[in-house]
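Notebook, bench 3.
Goal today: get a predicted structure for HP domain-containing protein from Caenorhabditis japonica so we can plan the truncation constructs. The sequence was checked against the plasmid map this morning, with no discrepancies at the termini. Length recorded as 141 residues. Pasting the sequence as submitted so the record is complete.
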Amino acid sequence: METILIDVGGALWLWSEDVVTTFALKVANRYWKGREGSARVVYKGAEPEKFQALFLKWEPFEVEHRLESRDVKELLDERCRTFSLQELKDRTNLPAGMDMRRLESYLTDDDFQKAFGTERREFYAQKAWKQNEARKRVGLF
């Protein structure tokens, strides 16, 4: 998936072909921190006129489904909030773009400790297969 960061001085655009990754949101947010102006995520096929005007020639993309433009910080806050263990197990109301391979990272420290019986740093120090076994045990694999 292609993602492009475009800084035009008074605005930052994060363009993406599909649902933007949380990592790309974090990079854009950190890059734009302390700057004036908006930082927006725009998606292929749903580019606003202000974005299209940045280019000499614009040919619209044909896409099956259009994703709405969103504020970078707002979308990042939605993605990085914590969820209960049950919400993560159910996977029904989770925001698109979450790292589904590391659902445990969305637990509070207390919930993490209760679910895995260890602290995060100890958990992530384990070999990958052991982490996956623990994820399976608590229903997050």
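The first helix runs from residue 22 to 32. The chain has two domains: 3-79, 82-138.
Flagging this for group meeting.
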